[in-house]
Amino acid sequence: MCLPKGVSGLAIQSIAAAIGNILCFNFGLMFGITPAHMTLYESELETPLNMATDPAGTAWLTGYLFLSAAIGALCSGCLALKIGPKSVLHCSGLLQIFGWFCIHFGYDIVHIYASRIFVGMSAGAAFVVLPIFINEISETREKAASLTFTIELWRTLGILAGFVLGFYVPYDLVNIVGCSVSVVFAMTFPFVQESPHYYLRKNNVAGLEKALRWYRGIRDIDDREKPEYLSELAEFQAEMQSQVKNVGTTPMSQGYIVRLTFVSFLLTVCAKLSGVLVELNYAADFLGRTGYSTEINYVVLATAQCAGALFARLVGPRLPRKLLLCISSLVSAGAVIALALFKTYGQLWLLGSWVDQYLPIILLAAQLAFVSFGLYPLAAVVSSEVLPTKLHDLLYSLASAFSWLLLFGMIEAFNAVKATNAPGLVLYLWVFAAASIFVGLISLPLLPETRNRRPSAVQRELGYVDDGGVAKGSAVTNGHIATHI
User: pTM to 2 decimals?
Assistant: First the structure.
Protein backbone atom coordinates (compact mmCIF):
# COMPACT_ATOMS: atom_id res chain seq x y z
CA MET A 1 0.00 0.00 0.00
CA CYS A 2 1.52 3.30 -1.10
CA LEU A 3 1.29 5.87 1.67
CA PRO A 4 2.62 9.43 1.89
CA LYS A 5 6.13 9.73 3.29
CA GLY A 6 4.86 11.77 6.21
CA VAL A 7 2.77 8.92 7.59
CA SER A 8 4.41 7.56 10.73
CA GLY A 9 4.80 3.95 11.71
CA LEU A 10 2.17 4.26 14.43
CA ALA A 11 -0.31 5.63 11.90
CA ILE A 12 0.42 2.76 9.51
CA GLN A 13 -0.23 0.26 12.29
CA SER A 14 -3.56 1.97 13.00
CA ILE A 15 -4.52 1.91 9.33
CA ALA A 16 -3.70 -1.79 9.01
CA ALA A 17 -5.74 -2.56 12.14
CA ALA A 18 -8.66 -0.46 10.86
CA ILE A 19 -8.74 -2.37 7.56
CA GLY A 20 -8.65 -5.67 9.45
CA ASN A 21 -11.48 -4.46 11.66
CA ILE A 22 -13.77 -4.30 8.62
CA LEU A 23 -14.18 -8.05 9.18
CA CYS A 24 -15.49 -7.39 12.69
CA PHE A 25 -17.81 -4.68 11.40
CA ASN A 26 -19.14 -7.03 8.72
CA PHE A 27 -19.86 -9.75 11.27
CA GLY A 28 -21.78 -7.20 13.34
CA LEU A 29 -23.68 -6.20 10.22
CA MET A 30 -24.74 -9.80 9.51
CA PHE A 31 -25.62 -10.42 13.15
CA GLY A 32 -27.58 -7.17 13.37
CA ILE A 33 -29.83 -7.81 10.38
CA THR A 34 -30.76 -11.29 11.63
CA PRO A 35 -33.52 -10.38 14.16
CA ALA A 36 -35.32 -8.17 11.62
CA HIS A 37 -34.97 -10.66 8.77
CA MET A 38 -36.13 -13.57 10.94
CA THR A 39 -39.55 -11.94 11.08
CA LEU A 40 -39.38 -11.30 7.34
CA TYR A 41 -38.58 -14.93 6.51
CA GLU A 42 -41.52 -16.09 8.65
CA SER A 43 -44.03 -13.82 6.93
CA GLU A 44 -46.27 -15.46 4.33
CA LEU A 45 -46.79 -12.14 2.54
CA GLU A 46 -43.40 -10.41 2.76
CA THR A 47 -40.84 -13.22 2.66
CA PRO A 48 -38.20 -12.75 -0.09
CA LEU A 49 -37.79 -16.55 -0.29
CA ASN A 50 -39.80 -18.99 -2.35
CA MET A 51 -41.73 -19.95 0.78
CA ALA A 52 -42.00 -18.78 4.37
CA THR A 53 -40.29 -20.68 7.16
CA ASP A 54 -41.29 -21.27 10.76
CA PRO A 55 -39.70 -19.90 13.98
CA ALA A 56 -37.80 -23.15 14.48
CA GLY A 57 -36.24 -22.72 11.06
CA THR A 58 -35.25 -19.10 11.58
CA ALA A 59 -33.75 -19.95 14.98
CA TRP A 60 -31.06 -21.84 13.11
CA LEU A 61 -29.87 -18.62 11.45
CA THR A 62 -28.00 -17.43 14.53
CA GLY A 63 -27.27 -21.04 15.49
CA TYR A 64 -25.40 -21.70 12.25
CA LEU A 65 -23.63 -18.36 12.62
CA PHE A 66 -22.24 -19.33 16.03
CA LEU A 67 -21.58 -22.99 15.18
CA SER A 68 -19.54 -22.10 12.11
CA ALA A 69 -17.75 -19.40 14.13
CA ALA A 70 -16.59 -22.15 16.48
CA ILE A 71 -15.15 -24.05 13.52
CA GLY A 72 -13.41 -20.96 12.19
CA ALA A 73 -11.96 -20.12 15.61
CA LEU A 74 -10.72 -23.67 16.16
CA CYS A 75 -8.78 -23.78 12.89
CA SER A 76 -7.51 -20.20 12.76
CA GLY A 77 -4.90 -20.33 15.54
CA CYS A 78 -2.89 -23.09 13.87
CA LEU A 79 -3.37 -21.55 10.44
CA ALA A 80 -2.06 -18.18 11.63
CA LEU A 81 1.16 -19.84 12.77
CA LYS A 82 1.55 -21.80 9.51
CA ILE A 83 0.50 -19.40 6.75
CA GLY A 84 0.54 -16.09 8.60
CA PRO A 85 -2.21 -13.97 10.19
CA LYS A 86 -2.57 -11.76 7.11
CA SER A 87 -3.35 -14.75 4.90
CA VAL A 88 -5.95 -16.06 7.36
CA LEU A 89 -7.64 -12.65 7.55
CA HIS A 90 -7.64 -12.35 3.77
CA CYS A 91 -9.34 -15.75 3.42
CA SER A 92 -11.87 -14.61 6.03
CA GLY A 93 -12.72 -11.63 3.88
CA LEU A 94 -13.37 -13.86 0.87
CA LEU A 95 -15.71 -16.02 2.95
CA GLN A 96 -17.71 -12.95 3.89
CA ILE A 97 -18.19 -12.11 0.22
CA PHE A 98 -19.58 -15.60 -0.38
CA GLY A 99 -21.90 -15.12 2.58
CA TRP A 100 -23.44 -11.91 1.25
CA PHE A 101 -23.73 -13.39 -2.24
CA CYS A 102 -25.73 -16.28 -0.80
CA ILE A 103 -28.25 -13.80 0.60
CA HIS A 104 -28.36 -11.64 -2.50
CA PHE A 105 -28.95 -14.51 -4.93
CA GLY A 106 -30.64 -16.93 -2.53
CA TYR A 107 -34.28 -17.91 -2.78
CA ASP A 108 -34.47 -20.71 -0.21
CA ILE A 109 -33.81 -20.82 3.53
CA VAL A 110 -30.92 -23.21 2.82
CA HIS A 111 -29.14 -20.40 0.98
CA ILE A 112 -29.64 -18.13 3.99
CA TYR A 113 -28.18 -20.84 6.23
CA ALA A 114 -25.16 -20.99 3.90
CA SER A 115 -24.67 -17.25 4.24
CA ARG A 116 -24.50 -17.55 8.04
CA ILE A 117 -22.06 -20.47 7.78
CA PHE A 118 -19.67 -18.52 5.54
CA VAL A 119 -19.84 -15.35 7.63
CA GLY A 120 -19.64 -17.32 10.88
CA MET A 121 -16.46 -19.13 9.84
CA SER A 122 -15.00 -15.80 8.76
CA ALA A 123 -15.91 -14.11 12.05
CA GLY A 124 -14.62 -16.97 14.21
CA ALA A 125 -11.26 -16.77 12.47
CA ALA A 126 -11.14 -12.98 12.46
CA PHE A 127 -11.85 -12.54 16.17
CA VAL A 128 -9.00 -14.94 16.97
CA VAL A 129 -6.42 -13.87 14.40
CA LEU A 130 -6.95 -10.10 14.35
CA PRO A 131 -5.69 -9.64 17.96
CA ILE A 132 -2.69 -11.80 17.03
CA PHE A 133 -2.05 -9.72 13.93
CA ILE A 134 -2.36 -6.44 15.84
CA ASN A 135 -0.04 -7.67 18.56
CA GLU A 136 2.62 -8.69 16.05
CA ILE A 137 2.64 -5.50 13.98
CA SER A 138 2.50 -3.06 16.89
CA GLU A 139 5.62 -1.18 17.89
CA THR A 140 4.90 -1.21 21.63
CA ARG A 141 2.75 -3.12 24.10
CA GLU A 142 0.72 0.02 24.74
CA LYS A 143 -0.02 0.48 21.02
CA ALA A 144 -1.04 -3.18 20.75
CA ALA A 145 -3.48 -2.84 23.65
CA SER A 146 -4.92 0.39 22.26
CA LEU A 147 -5.56 -1.16 18.84
CA THR A 148 -7.02 -4.32 20.36
CA PHE A 149 -9.64 -2.20 22.12
CA THR A 150 -10.83 -1.03 18.68
CA ILE A 151 -12.01 -4.55 17.78
CA GLU A 152 -14.95 -4.28 20.17
CA LEU A 153 -15.79 -0.80 18.87
CA TRP A 154 -15.97 -1.97 15.26
CA ARG A 155 -18.04 -5.03 16.21
CA THR A 156 -20.59 -2.94 18.10
CA LEU A 157 -20.76 -0.36 15.30
CA GLY A 158 -21.49 -3.19 12.88
CA ILE A 159 -24.30 -4.51 15.07
CA LEU A 160 -25.83 -1.04 15.35
CA ALA A 161 -25.61 -0.57 11.58
CA GLY A 162 -27.14 -4.02 11.09
CA PHE A 163 -30.13 -3.20 13.27
CA VAL A 164 -30.72 0.07 11.46
CA LEU A 165 -30.38 -1.54 8.03
CA GLY A 166 -32.43 -4.60 8.96
CA PHE A 167 -35.38 -2.68 10.35
CA TYR A 168 -35.43 0.44 8.18
CA VAL A 169 -33.79 -0.38 4.81
CA PRO A 170 -35.25 -2.60 2.04
CA TYR A 171 -34.03 -6.18 2.01
CA ASP A 172 -32.18 -6.03 -1.34
CA LEU A 173 -30.31 -2.84 -0.44
CA VAL A 174 -29.03 -4.38 2.79
CA ASN A 175 -27.31 -7.14 0.83
CA ILE A 176 -25.69 -4.61 -1.48
CA VAL A 177 -24.29 -2.74 1.53
CA GLY A 178 -22.90 -5.96 2.97
CA CYS A 179 -21.32 -6.97 -0.32
CA SER A 180 -19.81 -3.49 -0.72
CA VAL A 181 -18.21 -3.60 2.73
CA SER A 182 -16.72 -7.02 1.97
CA VAL A 183 -15.36 -5.85 -1.37
CA VAL A 184 -13.72 -2.82 0.28
CA PHE A 185 -11.82 -5.16 2.59
CA ALA A 186 -10.89 -7.56 -0.19
CA MET A 187 -9.54 -4.71 -2.34
CA THR A 188 -7.51 -2.96 0.35
CA PHE A 189 -6.17 -5.64 2.69
CA PRO A 190 -3.85 -7.30 0.12
CA PHE A 191 -1.76 -4.12 0.15
CA VAL A 192 -1.11 -4.51 3.88
CA GLN A 193 2.18 -6.23 4.71
CA GLU A 194 2.35 -9.57 6.49
CA SER A 195 3.44 -9.56 10.13
CA PRO A 196 7.22 -9.40 10.67
CA HIS A 197 6.86 -12.25 13.17
CA TYR A 198 5.56 -14.55 10.45
CA TYR A 199 8.75 -14.01 8.46
CA LEU A 200 10.72 -14.54 11.67
CA ARG A 201 9.08 -17.95 12.11
CA LYS A 202 9.87 -18.77 8.47
CA ASN A 203 13.50 -17.49 8.71
CA ASN A 204 12.81 -15.10 5.82
CA VAL A 205 15.24 -12.25 6.39
CA ALA A 206 14.26 -10.18 3.34
CA GLY A 207 10.56 -10.43 4.09
CA LEU A 208 11.14 -9.59 7.74
CA GLU A 209 13.11 -6.43 6.97
CA LYS A 210 10.57 -5.28 4.36
CA ALA A 211 7.61 -5.80 6.69
CA LEU A 212 9.39 -4.18 9.63
CA ARG A 213 10.31 -1.11 7.59
CA TRP A 214 6.71 -0.76 6.37
CA TYR A 215 5.17 -0.96 9.83
CA ARG A 216 7.73 1.42 11.31
CA GLY A 217 7.30 4.04 8.59
CA ILE A 218 10.83 3.59 7.20
CA ARG A 219 10.69 4.50 3.49
CA ASP A 220 13.85 6.52 2.83
CA ILE A 221 17.26 4.90 2.82
CA ASP A 222 18.46 7.48 5.36
CA ASP A 223 15.70 6.47 7.76
CA ARG A 224 17.08 2.94 7.92
CA GLU A 225 19.85 4.26 10.17
CA LYS A 226 17.47 5.31 12.93
CA PRO A 227 18.64 3.84 16.25
CA GLU A 228 15.23 2.52 17.29
CA TYR A 229 14.77 0.72 13.97
CA LEU A 230 18.25 -0.78 14.05
CA SER A 231 17.75 -1.90 17.64
CA GLU A 232 14.49 -3.68 16.86
CA LEU A 233 15.93 -5.23 13.70
CA ALA A 234 18.90 -6.51 15.71
CA GLU A 235 16.51 -8.17 18.15
CA PHE A 236 14.73 -9.91 15.32
CA GLN A 237 18.01 -11.05 13.78
CA ALA A 238 19.27 -12.35 17.11
CA GLU A 239 16.06 -14.32 17.59
CA MET A 240 16.34 -15.71 14.06
CA GLN A 241 19.91 -16.82 14.72
CA SER A 242 18.85 -18.58 17.90
CA GLN A 243 16.17 -20.44 15.95
CA VAL A 244 18.66 -21.51 13.28
CA LYS A 245 21.13 -22.74 15.92
CA ASN A 246 18.27 -24.30 17.94
CA VAL A 247 19.34 -22.35 21.01
CA GLY A 248 16.65 -22.60 23.69
CA THR A 249 15.68 -20.00 26.23
CA THR A 250 15.10 -20.37 29.94
CA PRO A 251 12.03 -22.59 30.38
CA MET A 252 9.08 -21.10 32.20
CA SER A 253 7.63 -22.49 35.38
CA GLN A 254 4.99 -25.16 34.82
CA GLY A 255 2.98 -23.67 37.67
CA TYR A 256 3.02 -20.29 35.94
CA ILE A 257 1.92 -21.79 32.62
CA VAL A 258 -0.87 -23.86 34.15
CA ARG A 259 -2.18 -21.00 36.26
CA LEU A 260 -2.29 -18.41 33.50
CA THR A 261 -3.60 -20.88 30.94
CA PHE A 262 -6.49 -21.73 33.23
CA VAL A 263 -7.30 -18.10 33.99
CA SER A 264 -7.03 -16.95 30.37
CA PHE A 265 -9.24 -19.79 29.18
CA LEU A 266 -11.93 -18.95 31.73
CA LEU A 267 -11.69 -15.25 30.94
CA THR A 268 -12.27 -15.84 27.22
CA VAL A 269 -15.17 -18.22 27.79
CA CYS A 270 -16.88 -16.11 30.47
CA ALA A 271 -16.67 -13.00 28.29
CA LYS A 272 -18.86 -14.74 25.70
CA LEU A 273 -21.14 -16.15 28.43
CA SER A 274 -21.84 -12.64 29.67
CA GLY A 275 -24.80 -12.93 27.31
CA VAL A 276 -24.35 -9.92 25.04
CA LEU A 277 -24.99 -11.71 21.74
CA VAL A 278 -27.87 -13.80 23.09
CA GLU A 279 -29.57 -10.73 24.58
CA LEU A 280 -29.17 -8.72 21.40
CA ASN A 281 -30.48 -11.54 19.25
CA TYR A 282 -33.55 -12.06 21.44
CA ALA A 283 -34.00 -8.57 22.87
CA ALA A 284 -37.69 -8.66 21.95
CA ASP A 285 -38.16 -11.70 24.20
CA PHE A 286 -36.11 -10.35 27.10
CA LEU A 287 -37.88 -6.98 27.05
CA GLY A 288 -41.35 -8.06 25.98
CA ARG A 289 -43.60 -5.03 25.68
CA THR A 290 -41.44 -2.82 27.88
CA GLY A 291 -39.29 0.02 26.64
CA TYR A 292 -40.15 1.46 23.26
CA SER A 293 -41.16 -0.25 20.04
CA THR A 294 -39.31 -3.42 19.08
CA GLU A 295 -37.17 -1.68 16.46
CA ILE A 296 -36.20 1.21 18.72
CA ASN A 297 -35.40 -1.17 21.58
CA TYR A 298 -32.84 -2.96 19.42
CA VAL A 299 -31.29 0.33 18.30
CA VAL A 300 -31.12 1.66 21.87
CA LEU A 301 -29.38 -1.48 23.13
CA ALA A 302 -26.88 -1.43 20.26
CA THR A 303 -26.21 2.26 20.86
CA ALA A 304 -25.50 1.60 24.53
CA GLN A 305 -23.07 -1.11 23.54
CA CYS A 306 -21.33 1.26 21.12
CA ALA A 307 -21.05 3.90 23.83
CA GLY A 308 -19.36 1.41 26.16
CA ALA A 309 -16.95 0.30 23.43
CA LEU A 310 -16.12 3.90 22.50
CA PHE A 311 -15.46 4.83 26.11
CA ALA A 312 -13.26 1.75 26.44
CA ARG A 313 -11.24 2.80 23.40
CA LEU A 314 -10.74 6.30 24.78
CA VAL A 315 -9.85 5.54 28.40
CA GLY A 316 -9.46 1.75 28.64
CA PRO A 317 -5.75 1.56 27.67
CA ARG A 318 -4.94 4.13 30.38
CA LEU A 319 -6.68 2.25 33.21
CA PRO A 320 -5.28 -0.66 35.24
CA ARG A 321 -6.33 -3.90 33.57
CA LYS A 322 -7.38 -5.71 36.75
CA LEU A 323 -9.43 -2.80 38.06
CA LEU A 324 -11.21 -2.23 34.76
CA LEU A 325 -11.96 -5.93 34.35
CA CYS A 326 -13.26 -6.28 37.90
CA ILE A 327 -15.45 -3.17 37.86
CA SER A 328 -16.94 -3.74 34.42
CA SER A 329 -17.78 -7.39 35.09
CA LEU A 330 -19.31 -6.80 38.52
CA VAL A 331 -21.37 -3.77 37.44
CA SER A 332 -22.68 -5.64 34.40
CA ALA A 333 -23.55 -8.58 36.67
CA GLY A 334 -25.38 -6.23 39.02
CA ALA A 335 -27.50 -4.89 36.15
CA VAL A 336 -28.43 -8.42 35.02
CA ILE A 337 -29.29 -9.50 38.56
CA ALA A 338 -31.50 -6.44 38.99
CA LEU A 339 -33.26 -7.28 35.71
CA ALA A 340 -33.76 -10.91 36.77
CA LEU A 341 -35.23 -9.85 40.11
CA PHE A 342 -37.45 -7.27 38.45
CA LYS A 343 -38.81 -9.82 35.95
CA THR A 344 -39.53 -12.21 38.82
CA TYR A 345 -40.88 -9.89 41.53
CA GLY A 346 -41.39 -6.54 39.79
CA GLN A 347 -45.16 -6.79 39.75
CA LEU A 348 -45.13 -6.94 43.55
CA TRP A 349 -42.99 -3.85 44.04
CA LEU A 350 -45.55 -1.30 42.77
CA LEU A 351 -42.88 1.08 41.46
CA GLY A 352 -45.14 2.87 39.04
CA SER A 353 -46.00 2.53 35.37
CA TRP A 354 -42.97 4.48 34.10
CA VAL A 355 -40.53 2.28 36.00
CA ASP A 356 -42.32 -0.88 34.89
CA GLN A 357 -42.11 0.28 31.30
CA TYR A 358 -38.53 1.56 31.05
CA LEU A 359 -36.47 -0.01 33.85
CA PRO A 360 -35.85 -3.30 31.95
CA ILE A 361 -34.34 -1.61 28.92
CA ILE A 362 -32.25 0.71 31.15
CA LEU A 363 -30.81 -2.26 33.04
CA LEU A 364 -30.17 -4.28 29.89
CA ALA A 365 -28.52 -1.31 28.18
CA ALA A 366 -26.30 -0.74 31.23
CA GLN A 367 -25.18 -4.36 31.19
CA LEU A 368 -24.32 -4.24 27.48
CA ALA A 369 -22.42 -0.99 27.91
CA PHE A 370 -20.25 -2.24 30.77
CA VAL A 371 -19.49 -5.56 29.08
CA SER A 372 -18.26 -3.67 26.01
CA PHE A 373 -16.42 -1.23 28.26
CA GLY A 374 -14.18 -3.81 29.89
CA LEU A 375 -15.02 -7.49 29.86
CA TYR A 376 -15.16 -8.14 26.11
CA PRO A 377 -12.07 -6.19 24.95
CA LEU A 378 -9.92 -7.16 27.94
CA ALA A 379 -10.46 -10.86 27.27
CA ALA A 380 -8.19 -10.46 24.24
CA VAL A 381 -5.81 -7.88 25.72
CA VAL A 382 -5.00 -9.58 29.03
CA SER A 383 -4.40 -13.08 27.71
CA SER A 384 -1.97 -11.77 25.08
CA GLU A 385 0.03 -9.97 27.77
CA VAL A 386 0.45 -12.87 30.19
CA LEU A 387 1.00 -15.92 27.99
CA PRO A 388 3.84 -17.00 25.69
CA THR A 389 3.15 -16.24 22.04
CA LYS A 390 2.52 -19.70 20.63
CA LEU A 391 0.60 -20.88 23.69
CA HIS A 392 -1.58 -17.77 23.58
CA ASP A 393 -2.42 -18.19 19.91
CA LEU A 394 -3.44 -21.83 20.30
CA LEU A 395 -5.22 -21.36 23.62
CA TYR A 396 -7.17 -18.32 22.46
CA SER A 397 -8.24 -20.26 19.39
CA LEU A 398 -9.42 -23.21 21.49
CA ALA A 399 -11.15 -21.06 24.12
CA SER A 400 -12.93 -19.00 21.47
CA ALA A 401 -14.16 -22.14 19.72
CA PHE A 402 -15.47 -23.55 23.00
CA SER A 403 -17.26 -20.31 23.88
CA TRP A 404 -18.88 -20.10 20.44
CA LEU A 405 -20.14 -23.67 20.92
CA LEU A 406 -21.66 -22.67 24.26
CA LEU A 407 -23.39 -19.74 22.59
CA PHE A 408 -24.69 -22.08 19.90
CA GLY A 409 -26.19 -24.31 22.59
CA MET A 410 -27.81 -21.35 24.32
CA ILE A 411 -29.31 -20.08 21.07
CA GLU A 412 -30.72 -23.47 20.12
CA ALA A 413 -32.15 -24.08 23.60
CA PHE A 414 -33.65 -20.61 23.84
CA ASN A 415 -37.15 -21.40 22.59
CA ALA A 416 -37.38 -24.50 24.78
CA VAL A 417 -36.29 -22.59 27.87
CA LYS A 418 -38.62 -19.71 27.07
CA ALA A 419 -41.57 -22.10 26.88
CA THR A 420 -41.08 -23.35 30.44
CA ASN A 421 -43.22 -21.81 33.15
CA ALA A 422 -40.36 -21.43 35.60
CA PRO A 423 -37.73 -20.11 35.55
CA GLY A 424 -37.99 -19.36 31.82
CA LEU A 425 -35.76 -16.62 30.43
CA VAL A 426 -34.75 -15.57 33.94
CA LEU A 427 -32.51 -18.66 33.97
CA TYR A 428 -30.47 -17.16 31.13
CA LEU A 429 -30.09 -13.91 33.04
CA TRP A 430 -28.74 -15.74 36.09
CA VAL A 431 -26.23 -17.60 33.90
CA PHE A 432 -25.06 -14.30 32.40
CA ALA A 433 -24.71 -12.78 35.86
CA ALA A 434 -22.79 -15.79 37.19
CA ALA A 435 -20.29 -15.62 34.33
CA SER A 436 -19.64 -11.91 34.91
CA ILE A 437 -19.34 -12.34 38.69
CA PHE A 438 -16.88 -15.18 38.20
CA VAL A 439 -14.63 -12.95 36.08
CA GLY A 440 -14.78 -10.20 38.70
CA LEU A 441 -13.83 -12.60 41.48
CA ILE A 442 -10.88 -14.23 39.68
CA SER A 443 -9.47 -11.05 38.16
CA LEU A 444 -8.12 -9.49 41.36
CA PRO A 445 -6.47 -12.50 43.08
CA LEU A 446 -5.33 -14.53 40.06
CA LEU A 447 -4.51 -12.10 37.25
CA PRO A 448 -1.35 -9.99 37.30
CA GLU A 449 -1.42 -6.33 36.42
CA THR A 450 0.26 -6.00 33.00
CA ARG A 451 -0.27 -2.36 32.07
CA ASN A 452 3.03 -0.46 31.71
CA ARG A 453 4.97 -3.39 33.16
CA ARG A 454 7.80 -5.38 31.68
CA PRO A 455 7.26 -9.10 31.13
CA SER A 456 9.94 -9.90 33.71
CA ALA A 457 8.07 -7.89 36.38
CA VAL A 458 4.85 -9.74 35.59
CA GLN A 459 6.58 -13.09 36.03
CA ARG A 460 8.18 -12.05 39.30
CA GLU A 461 4.81 -10.97 40.66
CA LEU A 462 3.48 -14.45 39.95
CA GLY A 463 6.37 -16.09 41.75
CA TYR A 464 8.54 -17.29 38.87
CA VAL A 465 12.03 -16.52 40.15
CA ASP A 466 14.70 -19.20 40.26
CA ASP A 467 18.47 -19.37 40.25
CA GLY A 468 18.51 -18.53 36.57
CA GLY A 469 16.30 -15.50 37.01
CA VAL A 470 13.16 -14.70 35.11
CA ALA A 471 12.54 -16.45 31.81
CA LYS A 472 12.99 -13.90 29.10
CA GLY A 473 15.20 -14.77 26.14
CA SER A 474 15.50 -12.61 23.05
CA ALA A 475 12.11 -13.23 21.48
CA VAL A 476 10.51 -10.12 20.06
CA THR A 477 6.86 -10.49 20.89
CA ASN A 478 5.36 -7.08 21.64
CA GLY A 479 2.99 -7.83 24.46
CA HIS A 480 3.64 -11.53 24.96
CA ILE A 481 5.94 -12.96 27.59
CA ALA A 482 9.15 -13.58 25.71
CA THR A 483 9.79 -17.28 25.82
CA HIS A 484 9.38 -20.48 23.84
CA ILE A 485 7.24 -23.44 24.76
Answer: 0.90
CA-only gyration radius of the chain, Å:
23
Query: At residue 316, what is the residue type?
Result: G
| Phi and psi angles of residue 413, each rounded to the nearest 5 degrees, phi first | -90, -5
The pLDDT averaged over each successive group of 10 residues in the chain (485 residues) is 72 94 95 91 88 85 94 93 93 94 90 95 95 91 90 96 94 91 94 92 89 87 79 83 62 68 86 90 89 93 95 91 90 95 86 89 95 89 78 88 94 84 82 92 79 68 51 42 37
- Give the 3-state secondary structure of residue 388: strand
Q: Which long-range contacts (CB under 8 A, 24 or more apart) does 73-76 make?
A: 73/124, 73/125, 73/127, 73/128, 73/397, 73/400, 73/401, 73/404, 74/124, 74/397, 74/398, 74/401, 75/125, 75/397, 76/124, 76/125, 76/128, 76/129, 76/397
Q: Rounded to an integer, what distance in angstroms lies between the CA atom of residue 67 and that of residue 408?
A: 6
Paired with 466 in beta bridges are 469
Q: Cα separations (Å) of 222 from 43, 218, 227?
A: 66, 9, 11
8: region left, alpha or beta (phi > 0 left; psi from -120 to 50 alpha)? beta
Contact 155/28 with Cβ under 8 angstroms?
A: yes
Closest C-alpha among 13, 55, 15 to residue 38: 55
